[in-house]
Amino acid sequence: MLRTLTIRDFVIVDTIELEFSSGFSVFTGETGAGKSILIDALQLALGGRGDASVVREGAPKADITADFSVSAAAKAWLEQNEFAVEEGGALLRRVIDNAGRSKAFINGIAATAAQLRDLGDMLVDIHGQHAHQSLLKTEAQRALLDNQAAFKDAGAGADAQTVAATHKAWRALARQREEFETNAKNVLIERERLEWQVAELQKLAVKPGEWSEITNEHSRLSHAASLLEGAQEALAAISESDHPILSQLSSLNQKLGKLVAVDAQMQTVLDCMEPARIQLQEAVYALNNYLDKVDLDPERLRTVDARMEAIHMTARKFRVTPDELPEEFASLSERLKQLADASDLDGLRQQEEKIRESYMTAAARLSATRATAARLLGTQVTAAMQELSMTGGSFVVGLNPCEPTASGVEQVEFLVAGHAGVAPRPLAKVASGGELARIALAISVITSNATTTPTLIFDEVDSGIGGAVAEVVGRLLKRLGQERQVLCVTHLPQVASQANQHFQVAKGTTGEGKTVSHIDVLDNKARVEEVARMLGGVEITATTRKHARELLAL
C-alpha cells in the first residue's frame, strides 16, 4: 500500500507530505482547489509522462516521492532488477526540472521511467474520471473482459497472446501466397533464368582458387622450352661441363686446405669457400629435380588454354572476375533455392493451413474462457446495478462472431437494459450520462476485486451520481477498502462520509501573491465542517452541520 507521498514544487503545490492509512481514504475540496493534482503527482512518480509545465512557477524542479509497502511479487521484481529492498518497501522518486529533463529513482538507485511504470503497475491501479467514456469503445470492452478472464484462468492470457501471434503469422503466409499467385508468371520466368545460370556454372564447375592455379600452370607450360634450356645450361656449367664450377671449387678448397697447414690465417678464406661449395651442390640437386618435372607438353598447354578461355568468357557473361565465379555460383544457387521455396504454392498452402489451424484452436480456447468470464461479469454488474438504483436493469456481455482477427473470432460488446422487460442494447445507445457513470463505477469496483494490486485509486469516478445512489457508492468503496487500500477523489458528501481517512484540498495565496494548494488530514470536527460545506455550498448552517453529523454517524 501507499505509505507516504511527498510532493515538492509541483504545479501549484509548494511542499506537501502525506501519510496514508489502510482502508478507504477520500480527497475533497472546492472546485479548482487541485484535488486531482495529488493523482497527477502520483502518476508521475509511477512513470507517467511529464514535462516542464508541471514545475511550479519560479522553482527549479518538481520532486515527487512515493513510499510503498510491497507484496512478495513486487519484492521479487525489485530483487530481479537489482533494486535493494529497504524496510520492506519501495521508494519511487521522479524529478523533472524546468527544462523538462527527467530523472527517476527506485530506492535511491537511478532507474528509467519504464521501470517505474512496470513496478507501479504492481502497486497501484488508477480508475480515472473519464473511465465511463472509454467503456463505449470496443477495444476497451474487450480488454476489460480479457483481464477478467485472465484473472480467473491464467491460460486465457497465454491464449490471447497465441491468437495474436498466430494471426500475424497466418496473415504473412496468406500475403506471400497471394503475391505468388498474382506474380506467378514473373516468378516462373525468374526461376527459369536462375536455373539456366546455375546449370551453366555447375557444368563449368570452377573451384575456389582454381583460376590462380591454372594461370600459374599456363605460364609454366607456355615457357617450358626456355625454362628447360636455362635449367640445363645452369646444370652443365655447375657440374657437367668439361670444367664444371663445382669441380673447380672443390679443387680450390683442397689447395686452400693444404695452405692452412702452412698459415693458419688461410682458414678464414677456407671457411668462406666451403659453404659456397655446399650451396652449389644443393643447386645441382634442385636443378636435377626441376628437370625431372619440367616437360614439353603441348597437349596439356592446349587443355589449359581452353579451360582458361571458358572461365574467362563465363566471367564476362556474368560480369564478375574469374576468381569470383565460385562465389557467384553459390549466390545464384541460394537465390534459386529461396525462389523455389517461395514459389512452392502447395507448400505455402500447407503452411498457411497449419498456422490457421493453430490460430483457430487457440481462438476457440479464448472464446470459451471469454464466455465464462462474460457470464460472470454480467451477473456481477447486474447485481451492482440493483444497488445503484437501477432496479430491474441488467448488464450483458455480448460475444458476436466475426471474421478472424488478432483479437479472436468474436467482438465483445457491452449491452445494458435500464429496467425490467427491456431487451439489452449496446451501452452507447441506451445509457444516459448518469446511468453510464453508475455502470462504469460498478464495473470499476468489480474489476478491482479481480486484481491483486494493493492500492486502488478512483479519481472522480462518481461524476454524474447523486442522492441515494451516492450513499450506495460510498458503501461500495468502503467495502472495497476492507480488502485493499482505496483512495478516492470525490465531490459527493455521501461518499466522503464513508471514508476511514479524510483529506481536504484547499487553495490559498502566499504573501508574494502566488497561488498554492495544500492538503490537510481532517479530524472529526473538521470533517463535519467539510461535509457540511459539500452539502450546503458557500453558507454552512446548523441544519447542514446536523446533516453532516448524521452522515458521519457522529
UniProtKB/TrEMBL annotation:
A GO molecular function held by the record: ATP binding
Q: Which InterPro entries match?
A: DNA_recomb/repair_RecN, P-loop_NTPase, RecF/RecN/SMC_N
Q: Where is the RecF/RecN/SMC N-terminal domain?
A: 2-508
Query: What is the protein's species of origin?
Result: Massilia atriviolacea
Name any one Pfam family assigned in the record.
SMC_N
Q: Which GO terms describe its biological process?
A: DNA recombination; DNA repair; SOS response
Cite the SUPFAM superfamilies for this sequence: P-loop containing nucleoside triphosphate hydrolases (SSF52540)
Task: State the protein's purpose.
Answer: May be involved in recombinational repair of damaged DNA.
Q: Which CDD domains match?
A: ABC_RecN
Which named protein is this?
A: DNA repair protein RecN
Q: Write out the similarity annotation.
A: Belongs to the RecN family.
Q: Which sequence ranges form a coiled-coil region, renumbered to this chain?
A: 177-204
UniProt keyword Membrane, yes or no: no
Gene Ontology CC annotations of this record: bacterial nucleoid
Keyword list, A-Z: ATP-binding, Coiled coil, DNA damage, DNA repair, Nucleotide-binding
